[in-house]
Amino acid sequence: MVFPYLKPNATVLIQDLTVQKFLFIAQPNTIIPTLRYNLLSSHMNPHNTEIFFVDDDIDDRELIKESFDSLGSSCNAKTFGSGIDLIAALKKLNVKQFPSLIVLDINMPMMSGIQVLETLKQDPQFALIPVAFFTTSCSPALEKELVKKGAIACIQKASAYKELKSQMAYFEELAASYKHKGATAA
Fold this sequence. Notes:
The protein is α/β, with parallel strands linked by helices. The chain is about 35% helix and about 20% strand.
């Protein structure tokens, strides 16, 4: 299992995947967003697993919602047309209502996905919410930059509907893993 959101010098020990308990061991002074998030997630409602998708293209939002809904999961997907709309919605929520995952497009008017990520990570209220990117192009260099800024993944949008459904299933698994796992520091 790869953990692209960890700092390069971090060592990870996975204890038990069946109960999704994780023990993270890291170098001194290393910040691990996942660990901090899981300390917060213990206060979140485990029955309220949601993913917030942000994309300025209405057709993409409809395809995302349709393909996600076709999975028949208990996880709820909400879509937003801009980062500004997302941030406004988040400000109306309390911590128990926060999404398990935020998925951003990169190229959006007014506020790019990268600017949204930076805004979220600079605000202590939202800094612990995991953020992934779902965009038309994601090079290794771009993914490295996004992970440095606090993203946990960058996925290139599929061109076929079947692949899109698989990607939505991946985001659902990712959201569930952040929603339900607990972490303790060594």
